[in-house]
Write a structure and sequence with these properties.
The chain is mostly helical. It contains 24 helices and 7 strands. 67% of the residues lie in helices and 5% in strands.
Length: 535
């Protein structure tokens, strides 16, 4: 009785420790007056609009992009969660608080998943996850990444448990929370296929054994058919839930075109060869990925070796995680943003496959043999001490190096208040719907946060402008880069009907181009940009 109570307390203490450690770590990273990702300002703006009851199924802020007629708020429920945080504090501070909460909850979900399947090293795997720089960096960007991962892991847990009603609800909700919802469909269908095939292979291996024949006589052979039906149910549940999430949606039917642009044309096709896209869409080179995630890479190599050595011991769960690891590795090598999935799913595969490979290993007997065969030898002891010392020095060095690097990366970006005065001046001196010709697409979220009444040229992703009108896109780019040799006024006023031009101080070539034409008048010189009126 006492032992059971002790284990229960120990279990709750583990969950509490994981949440507190993750919360404090993320709070430390968020303790800067900067957002590393400019899209954070867009999320804050949408949270404020929902807080104030200003919901709209259209998006007029970017009239020259595909979003003007094919828009969906792919983070709708995330912005709904943000609304109360925007009410209790400054919206940008509220966004940071929500980022910390969701990040800690995501790590807690990861830990719960491993505990759910009795992985003995669940706590160690979770702590190791928190030491991997690329993962924690992505979790600390003020966006819905941690929420997406949480839903994906919960969905995987529901699939492993064959809770198809929960899966249907989760898949429906995922569509409303985040545009990465196809990942849940792929994950669940993959498990259904792997589980069915795995069961069939195991059945064939047992088919000639006396035990199998006895089970068949007793009617136990019907379990295979039952598992097959359950796999079909979870696959159908996730597909149906996703379809309903798309159709029973405040943005239907324009969301279908939006998701095609976002998921296929931007996420898969990607136009990085033709236009300058966000840095997260460029490839992650293999050696760089392995080096940056070395704390995952080392146990991953060990797990892979044991996975193939003991392949017959692997459950359908571990095999599914192996294929998911391969899938997210391929995605990450294509676009570095997917490292936020690659790292945790690598750790899930490591933890679960090691349990299958060595879960029944007789550790006490192995320790006795180790002491007898190795510790009794002087040179073996010297080697063990050398390796242990190297690891004790190397691990803290990597952790401290990555921590310092991440603090520095998260402190660089878009400070709170950037472009605020310039945006407020345009709002005060313009009219609702005034068009601002700005100097870069990543300025849009900040400008929109401080002034949502004006209209802008490009934002959220330059591909939306490129897909709508390639000629306009290149006109805008040539002006912002200072390369345009034609009539600038004809482009700014004629092609874009702009009332104001905003030039950030780091766009010197554009500044010189605008100043060379007398039809642009410097009306406001701010700390971060100059604002010109257009005749």
């Amino acid at each position: 009785m006492l032992t059971r109570q002790y284990r229960q307390h120990q279990g709750w203490l583990g969950y509490l420790a994981v949440f507190v450690i993750a919360f404090l770590l993320f709070a430390n990273f968020q303790h800067v007056t900067v957002f590393a990702d400019p899209d954070s300002y867009y999320h804050a703006a949408m949270g404020v609009q929902l807080r104030d009851g200003n919901f709209s199924a259209s998006f007029a802020a970017l009239p020259y992009t595909t979003l003007a007629h094919a828009y969906a708020d792919q983070h709708f429920l995330y912005h709904f969660l943000l609304a109360p945080f925007a009410a209790i504090a400054d919206p940008l501070i509220g966004l940071k608080l929500l980022t910390i909460m969701l990040g800690a909850l995501m790590v807690l979900t990861f830990y719960w998943f491993l505990r759910r399947w009795s992985v003995p090293w669940a706590f160690a795997a979770t702590m190791l996850l928190l030491m991997v720089n690329p993962f924690t960096f992505r979790m600390n960007l003020a966006k819905a990444s941690s929420l997406s991962l949480m839903l994906l892991i919960l969905g995987l847990a529901a699939a492993f448990s064959y809770r198809y009603w929960i899966l249907g609800l989760l898949s429906f909700t995922y569509v409303w929370f985040y545009g990465g919802f196809p990942l849940l469909v792929l994950t669940v269908v993959l498990f259904a296929v792997v589980s069915t095939v795995h069961r069939r292979i195991m059945k064939r291996q047992d088919s000639n054994t006396l035990l199998h024949r006895i089970r068949a006589l007793l009617g136990r052979g019907f379990r295979h058919q039952r598992i097959k039906r359950l796999n079909l149910r979870i696959a159908v549940a996730v597909i149906v839930g996703t379809i309903f999430g798309l159709i029973l949606n405040p943005f239907f039917p324009s969301n279908i075109r939006f998701y095609f642009d976002q998921l296929v044309r931007i996420g898969i096709v990607n136009y990085q060869h033709a236009i300058g896209v966000g840095g997260e869409w460029y490839p992650y080179h293999f050696i760089e990925l392995i080096a940056n995630t070395v704390l995952v890479s080392i146990p991953l190599v060990i797990a892979l070796v044991l996975f193939f050595l003991f392949i017959k011991r692997q459950t359908a769960r571990s095999i599914t995680l192996f294929f998911l690891w391969l899938f997210f590795l391929a995605l990450t090598l294509k676009s570095r943003r997917y490292v936020e999935y690659y790292v945790p799913f690598s750790m899930l595969f490591v933890a679960m496959s090691l349990k299958d490979s060595i879960g029944e290993f007789k550790w006490r007997d192995a320790w006795r043999s180790f002491k007898r065969d190795f510790l009794g030898n002087f040179w073996a002891r010297i080697g063990i001490v050398a390796v242990a010392t190297y690891c004790l020095i190397l691990l803290p060095t990597i952790v401290v190096r990555d921590y310092i690097s991440e603090k520095k990366d998260l402190a660089n970006g878009f400070p709170i208040g950037i472009f605020q005065k310039e945006s407020e001046w345009i709002k005060a001196n313009g009219t609702p719907g005034s068009i601002v010709f700005h100097s870069d697409w990543d300025e849009f979220p900040v400008l929109y946060y401080y002034n949502s009444t004006s209209r802008y040229i490009a934002g959220l992703d330059p591909t939306f402008l490129y897909l709508q009108d390639k000629d306009r896109y290149y006109q805008w780019v040539n002006v912002t880069l200072g390369k345009e040799t034609g009539d600038i006024h004809a482009i700014v006023r004629g092609s874009f009907d702009a009332d104001f031009v905003l030039v950030a101080h780091d766009h010197n070539a554009m500044e010189n181009l605008i100043r060379s034409d007398a039809r642009f008048t410097l009306a406001y010189s701010g700390h971060d940009a100059n604002v010109y009126t257009v005749q």
